[in-house]
Design goal:
Length: 67
């Protein structure tokens, strides 16, 4: 069972290596993030993704990832 707040924390703290992608089960995106972690792009994407999900809300996250 995936937690919204765990996802947000992983995106903000471990987003530079794609931890939030592995948590959501998107292994390919996680591997891409690990491969490109030296560029800083995955960290930027993770911060943006966390902000977007904070605006979308926990209910929307639960609809997509807990059902």
């Amino acid at each position: 069972m995936k937690s919204f707040w765990n996802f947000i924390v992983l995106a903000l703290i471990g987003g530079f290596i794609g931890l939030q992608e592995f948590y959501r089960g998107k292994i390919a995106l996680g591997v891409v993030a690990v491969l490109f972690c030296w560029t800083g792009i995955p960290a930027l994407v993770a911060i943006i993704e966390a902000i977007v999900w904070l605006f979308r809300g926990e209910e929307e996250f639960n609809k997509l990832y807990r059902a």
